[in-house]
Amino acid sequence: MLHLLVCPQCGRQFDADHYATGERLQCSCGATVDVATAVGHDAAVVRCSACGAPRNEETDQCRYCGSSFTMADQDLDTVCPHCLARISGRARFCHYCGGPILIDQATAGNLALPCPACVSETLRSRQLGRESVAVAECGRCGGLWLDNTVFAIIAGRARQGVLQGLGTAPHTDPALGAPLPVSRRLYRPCPVCRSLMNRHNYGRSSGIILDLCHAHGIWFDLEELPRLLKWIQAGGEEAAHHRQADEARDELRQKQLAERTAQPDTPGWGDRRPNYDLFNDLADALGEGLRHLFRRP
Ligand SMILES: [Zn+2]
Ligand SMILES: [Zn+2]
Ligand SMILES: [Zn+2]
Ligand SMILES: [Zn+2]
Ligand SMILES: [Zn+2]
Fold this sequence. Notes:
The chain is α+β, with helices and mostly antiparallel strands. The chain is 24% helix and 15% strand. Helix 1 packs across helix 2. The longest helix has 26 residues, at 236-261. The chain is globular, with a radius of gyration of 31 Å. Bound molecules: zinc ion (ZN) (5 copies). One zinc ion is lined by residues 7, 9-10, 12, 27, 29, 31, 125.
């Protein structure tokens, strides 16, 4: 049974399996999290465990993502840290309360992640707006690190237009003063694996260049996350998708046109091509002639 704990202050989730009941964990947001015994209770499947959308009574499949609702009833080996319902270990959302289940980040109480931009600074956990997910923030430059799973959840909510507290600027620690500008180095290290991250224009046309580690997550400089979420919420992804499809179609049309103009429609070209039928006829005729010549009298 996977026992997840959630930090009451920042929403970060921890795996409490390695801790004894009554032990206290220090979260990197500064809060202390008490390890309590989690007694899971059975709860009705009223939400999709793949996308968190509410269940439509008549269907067995989620009308948003197509996942089967019966999947939520299998392998009930995890306790939802939000409502203590017994849920599937494969659930990304609780099938009862719809809260996100972040097994990926549930390893340690404290984050020991360096800021990819400032390097010397350590990231701290904080809640993202009023969403029940935690992100890691640098108190110096105001940049944000999002686990891939957290970003997928947040982007999905932006697409559905249900994001809470979108547009609030990242609130850096007031004691540290205004966020400091960072140097725009071309490649920055992933705070988790330290390998250099890729630079990526999100959606190919959002104009927001992110630092991305495929295995771990995405780094957002100050204000980049709210800008990107607004772009997604305004349907930027779909528009970009249509534009890319149009571009691909235009490209194909141009290519076909170019091929057609290069084709031998012009008179003269055809004449220069060897006429194999003529050759064959000649050869036949020659053969006949030769046979005639050598025919014995
Ligand atoms: Zn916390
Ligand atoms: Zn779904
Ligand atoms: Zn729950
Ligand atoms: Zn920083
Ligand atoms: Zn990485």
